[in-house]
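Deliverable D4.2, example record:
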Amino acid sequence: MNRRSQGLSISKAIPGFIQYKEAEVLSPTTLRSYSDDVKKWLGFTGDKEVIKVTTEDLRAFFVWLRTEYKPRRFSGNTDPLSPKTIRNIWVSLSAFFTWACLEFEFPNPMKLVPAPKFQEKPFEPFSKEQVEQLLKHSSVQNRIG
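Output generated by the structure prediction step:
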C-alpha cells in the first residue's frame, strides 16, 4: 500500500479508472458501462476508501444484485437482472480493482469473489428451408440491383 492510496475514495478513483480504460481505446459504450457499473456498486457500498473495500463487501453486493436490486429501466420493467448482466458487472468491478491494485499497490479484494455463472442461449442454426429461401431471395435481389 502506498501513500497515494490513503484517503482515496471510490468516487475519486472512478475518473482515473475510466481515463485508464480510455487509454486502451475502448468504445464509448464500454466505457459508459464500466462507469455505470462501478457507480452502481458505489451506490450500494457508500463512498469509502478504495483500500478499505473487502471481499465480503463485494460478495454482499452481488447477493444484493441477485436478490433485492430493482433495476430502473426506461420501460418501467423491474424484472431482476439477468445472470449475464450480473456477470458483466462483475467484469467491470474486476477491471476496476485490477487497475486500483496496480496503481495504488494493495491486495485485490475481487480475487476471492467468484465470477457469476450464466449460460449462453443456445445458437439456433437456420433450417435447410430457411437457407434455401435466403439464397433464393439473394439471387432475386442480385438480378434486380
